[in-house]
């Protein structure tokens, strides 16, 4: 079992959460998706899977839902 955490931009509501969750759950090996919504900010998405996920596939699934993985410039400064 592997757990990966991603930051996603553009999500604002429960519908956004549902769309991202649905697309990520369609990936092979995904067993659970949890979203910590930060409306209008950078949300945290945790994905549990049977095997490590290909980040390109994750990015494409999030894009298909209408959102984007956060790039380094979208992350808060430490």
UniProtKB/TrEMBL annotation:
Keyword Metal-binding attributed: yes
Residue ranges of domain HMA in the record: 2-70
InterPro entries: Heavy-metal-associated_CS (IPR017969), HMA_dom (IPR006121), HMA_dom_sf (IPR036163)
The keyword Mitochondrion belongs to this UniProt entry's keyword annotation: no
UniProt cross-references to Pfam families, sorted A to Z: HMA
UniProt GO molecular function: metal ion binding
Gene3D superfamilies the UniProt entry points to: 3.30.70.100
Keyword annotations: Metal-binding
Protein name: Copper chaperone
Organism in which the protein naturally occurs: Aeromicrobium phragmitis
Phylogenetic lineage: Bacteria, Bacillati, Actinomycetota, Actinomycetes, Propionibacteriales
